[in-house]
Amino acid sequence: MAHSSEEHPSRRSEAAWHTALLFLIAGAIVWLGGVHIRAILGGDLLKFGTLEFEDYLSADVEREIFRLISFSSILVTAGYLVVLISSIAFLFLSPFRLREHGWLMMSAILFYLFVPVEAFVMVIDAKMIYNEFFTTVDNSVFRELFVARVGALAGAPLIAMLCYYTIIVLAVFQPLRKKPIETA
Questions:
Q1: Is residue 69 part of a domain?
Q2: Would you say 73 and 157 are in contact if contact means Cβ atoms under 8 Å apart?
Q3: 125, 77 in Cβ contact below 8 A?
Q4: Total structural domains within the chain
Q5: pLDDT one-digit tens code per residue, 119-130
Q6: Is residue 111 part of a domain?
Q7: Which of 38, 89, 122, 135 is most buried, by CB atoms within 10 Å?
Q8: Number of C-alpha atoms within 13 angstroms, CB side, residue 22?
Q9: What is the pTM of this model?
């Protein structure tokens, strides 16, 4: 009897979607954590409720905050891309069917609905990252990019964040789950 070193196909498939789920969760932690770090840092720059910069910050302090925002933007972008790729893999490889798991379908719709918004703000983030690491521009360029990022798409990134937290609630409580039909 010959022994095969290959695993059973269902085990490989199960391992694949579990791996995708692991990357999805890890990426989401990095991504959402980075978003909050960036928001806290950015909140120090602006007067509360406005897009006006604080007057009391020196140019050096402001520059350091922009540097930290650039670093956190790298984490946010990498985390989001991991979530995007692993979520696609998870949806294709998992045994959960959207028709039977309404919570998963709602989560997918909420996530993929905001991919264009995230892509748009990532372009602005990429400009900030580029300026931080490959140029010697002054704070005015960073100010312009920061205001464009905060005011992007009339608040759509904020609405997206609320949807992302809704996805977490949906994944935990799993509403709209179709019960299997029992036969007597």
A1: yes
A2: no
A3: yes
A4: 1
A5: 999 999 999 999
A6: yes
A7: 38
A8: 6
A9: 0.88
